[in-house]
């Protein structure tokens, strides 16, 4: 991950960062509220291991450098932990003593929080804060976290649990850090959507190819094609998006031809199961999806307002939909599979840098 803020650059680990990060994590004052200084040899070994195979997960740790000087002044990231029997995603921010009081921790933590929620679909983040660490608690509060409870960690350390929830609901026990999705075939969808929101939905559809490319291009073939049980791999989810484009376009033509019912989908997804998308080059799938989506968006943009209000029966849901409803349905389907890819990345990233 690479994020630029007003004063900071959050970026992947480089060999030139190792000495600075070893010194940071070995500083007794910096780590006083984080369990104390780490063994320098162990920290160096962990960092060198990370360099040998940069993490393919959206989660991990990233050096923080000053944009003005290029100097590494901190280490921030997202790491999975079990807290009171619940799987959580912790936001961690650590900075050198000489930059304390400049607002760097708030600037970096806020940027990572935004990336986690907007790019990776994370709905809940925590920060584990020593009750005596007033400065760290202030950072958590400034980026929108609220104190949920106090806990005792293994080894006896007392920590306040600050929580950021991207949903409007209050934090609740149970569940993972990524929202558990309702199965697609259990979903219900709004109908009768107004013509006025059609341009907004079009932009969602236009934005899916670059979002998909951002999600998968940095991943190795091993991660892309790995399955979780009998479910599709990341690459197969991408292939499924390609497979569905002809149906979405056929249904647009159904509306324009004033057919009573939309084209029926193969609910067994036979095309995807038999396509062997894992054997394809991911660049081919991305290119195919980009081209197919361009055709779909161009066709939708050519439709007049009067045609947008025409309705046809959705064959599975058995409800009438207009063309705006159909476009929204496709956008939701896109997001469903992008979110699934993020879930798979979380499952596969068993190696986390925890210092």
User: What's the number of extended β-strand segments?
Assistant: 10
What is the 3D shape?
elongated
Distance between the termini: 19 Å
Report the uncertain regions.
168-180
Q: Helical proportion?
A: 40-55%
- Measured by DSSP, the beta-strand proportion falls in 15-25%
How would you explain this protein's 3D organization?
With 355 residues, this protein is an alpha+beta fold. The chain is 42% helix and 17% strand. It contains 11 helices and 10 strands. The strands form 3 sheets. It has a 5-stranded antiparallel sheet, with helices on both faces. Strands 6-8-7 form a 3-stranded antiparallel sheet, with helices on one face. A hairpin with a 5-residue loop joins strand 3 and strand 4. Helix 3 packs across helix 4. The two termini are 19 Å apart. 31% of the residues are buried. About 4% of the residues have low confidence.
